[in-house]
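Support case: zinc ion complex. Customer-provided input:
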Amino acid sequence: MLRLRRKDLNRLEAQALAEYPAECCGILTQGPEEEVAQIHACRNIQDQLHAENPADFARTSRTAYFIDPRELTRIIGAAERAGGRAAGFYHSHIDCPAYFSEEDKRRAMTMMGDEPDYPDAAYLVLSIDQQQVQPHKCFAWDQGGRNFAEVELELLD
Ligand SMILES: [Zn+2]
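Agent response - structure generated as follows:
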């Protein structure tokens, strides 16, 4: 289960609206003593990758996101050095509902493809349809089922 402050979810939804019609993305970290995750907005570099290498990056930012690996390493590294961890990742869907797509699953998995890079992380999917915020959904790796399953996002004030 993932816990966020309600105001932080509002900030993520504002980011998703501001970056529409591109998918927004970011990282959620949690300190060792913290009850809720902290949000870190990231730049979606998918369009840059698509422009440089359309064969390997066929999608644009409208249907995909890519967090700059250096930004990812910096944010998660800082959390881990402070005794915390990567609590999750978030991104938005454009003009379609929040669900965990095959692309989302493929991107969450290791190169070997048999388990996620971050098996304890939750994946929050936001949805913006026609510039309106739609219901979000949250997913996490189910070790027994060997697949992602929907989990609760708990909101605290
Ligand atoms: Zn997605």
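The two ends are 17 Å apart (CA to CA).

Case will auto-close in a few days if no follow-up is received.
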